[in-house]
Amino acid sequence: MAHIEEHPILGTMEKKKYVTVKVDGREIQGIEGEPIAAALLANGIKIFRFTHKFNEPRGLFCGIGQCTDCVMEVDGVPNVRTCVTPIREGMEIKTQHGFGKESTYE
Ligand code: FES
Fold first, then answer.
1. Is beta strand 18-23 parallel, antiparallel or unpaired with respect to 26-31?
2. 18-97: CATH topology
């Protein structure tokens, strides 16, 4: 993982609890409570969803829960904003295609 643990101004990051989640079937680790998006980026995952109309890739954009570019399917629920959703042990996260599998909009 690529978290910054030593910073010249902020100092040393205090010890955190790591959690394991699955992303499209692949296990990755994140720091408990950090946004899902932060854990994905730290593990080299930059594409979170594909658009409904043109199947274009999207990832982190605003980072504050406003744009919906980061939405994914989390534990079977589509359209979860991963930039503002804390990561928890055992989550099942999937790249979202279109409006998501449980959407009534398709
Ligand atoms: S990146 Fe914009 S809502 Fe998450």
1. antiparallel
2. Ubiquitin-like (UB roll) (3.10.20)
